[in-house]
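#lab-general

N.A. 3:47 PM
ok so I finally got the sequence cleaned up, no stray characters, all 117 residues accounted for. can someone with queue access submit it? mine expired

B.Y. 3:52 PM
send it over

N.A. 3:53 PM
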Amino acid sequence: MFSFIFSISRQLNTNQRMTFDIDPWGKFISTGSQDGKVLIYNTSTFELVSSTSSQNDQQDCINSCLFHPYSSILVTSSGQRQFSLDNEDEIDCPTDDSIDKCSAIQLWYLDFESESK
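B.Y. 4:20 PM
back already:
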């Protein structure tokens, strides 16, 4: 039937949907964390081979990581809905001024060959 292989831990204190991806060659798995890190693991050894912070000024949730289907490129998206409430007793719909906008889509070139040398 099913056999447990490995578990990857990451910082997630949100109900936001987070995704992961396996590269087209099956060598790496990528995911993100709530503190703005892009995490890449080797699928053979399950070792963390890369942990890189997002290039945003503020470290925000990396909610999606996707490998390019036939190139060494990874695309990530970051951001999460954030509310600033002036009065804790009242919950109002946020205005554009009360939302911290730190959403981004970033492209990353993956050069794992140079890391192994």
